[in-house]
DNA sequence: CGGATGCTACGGTGGAGACCGAAGCATCCG
DNA sequence: CGGATGCTTCGGTCTCCACCGTAGCATCCG
């Protein structure tokens, strides 16, 4: 089968430490310049340039030139899903070998971070738990479902729920949640179209703010209040 | 982050052509001997032995010794999901470059095959379509949902629907479908716990039969009738 | 226009690992 | 017991590719 060669090629591209580091740093959905990615991969710009050319040629990354900068981002949600699924296996492997030692530097990441286009970490898991507990969502290992009350709740805080379904859900209404295993909490959180919309909404409402040069996000005072009032979620 | 190294290691393991071939041949969920896998990877047994040792050590494969044979299988559904997601990206990449040339040898595979633990190919897609058309299932890009009538339908043909939920769906009932993009049809089909149960049921009922040494499955005359009567699905 | 910055192209070096042949160990069978 | 089969270990070869230094091209800025 010819598809086997392409499969191996894609996996091998993700399998180099430097490239993996670059891809990893793009998992928050933003676009970064070649220099920033070189730093993320721990290599010189000229080496990174070669790697980035390969990744773009293979369709893993999309690139956009802006002046003398070249901004790279993940080419599609499919690439992000691939990364997530590899992380899941890697997480299983790592936990099987060692009792999961993580440094204190990861504290911010563990509290709240973006995972491509949705929220992860303790915040992401807590939100998912709250939605389930409140009867707003059902979440299994393979799929998630937004209930009528969940649709109403998200509509109340100003989310354009119908718009999400119109854009992404071609053949049905109201589901389109997707569980995404959290590597730090080892519990599913809310991904998919609904997760992405909720995350974007938190940014525009000023509930969370990106931290410089990391996937971690900071919860603003306004966010503390919002998460408590709407979802009953309080994070230390 | 230390997790980055593990990530790269896992991806690199999948990124070698020989190992990719072996993993690919295990995607039907069966367990194969080291010799069979060597043939699948196009390498000698002694080379395969080294590869398999690495894959087992990394937790991608599980191994069971039976006499002088060592049977290897995918270690978990997570590994299968990882493979699928890489295939999805590879499929995107390949289709973007070439107009997708597939040989006639793949005809059987395109008609019906197993995808780890569920059905794929024209049969898999047709079943998913039929379930959606009949109002038995809703299927979005991120998730799927079995409706009440779908539960009844599967119960009628003798599927232990409640048992599935008891075993796999810890926190909810009735969803647990998962869409899985079909690389030949480029359409979602039915995966997840429900897809696995349906596939297993088709085997035990004698509707489909494995072909020797391939992921393709043959539809028996009994199956032709069953698929037509229950789902209204007819395949050439 | 001239210097600084961001990125890419080229050439050479070094190391990792995929591969096989030969040989050794366990298991099955007559 | 002795030959055959399945699998693994060891040693050596060879190819591939990640890496960087140097240099060149485009863009921005004073």
Topology record:
Two copies of one chain form a homodimer.
Chain A: H1 3-14, H2 17-25, E1 32-33, H3 34-41, H4 45-57, E2 61-66, E3 69-74, H5 77-97, H6 107-111, E4 113-115, E5 118-120, H7 121-133, E6 137-139, E7 144-146, H8 148-156, H9 161-168, E8 177-181, E9 188-191, H10 192-204, E10 208-210, E11 217-219, H11 221-231
Antiparallel strand pairs in A: 1-3, 2-3, 4-5, 6-7, 8-9, 10-11
Chain A binds a DNA duplex (30 and 30 nucleotides) through helix 4.
Give the strand tally of chain A. 11
Regions with little confidence, pLDDT below 50 for 5+ residues of chain A: 99-104, 168-174
> Fraction of residues of chain A in helices?
40-55%
- Largest sheet geometry of chain A: 3 strands, antiparallel
**Helix-strand category of chain A:** alpha+beta
Number of alpha- plus pi-helical segments of chain A? 11
What value does the average pLDDT of chain A take? 83
Oligomer kind? homodimer
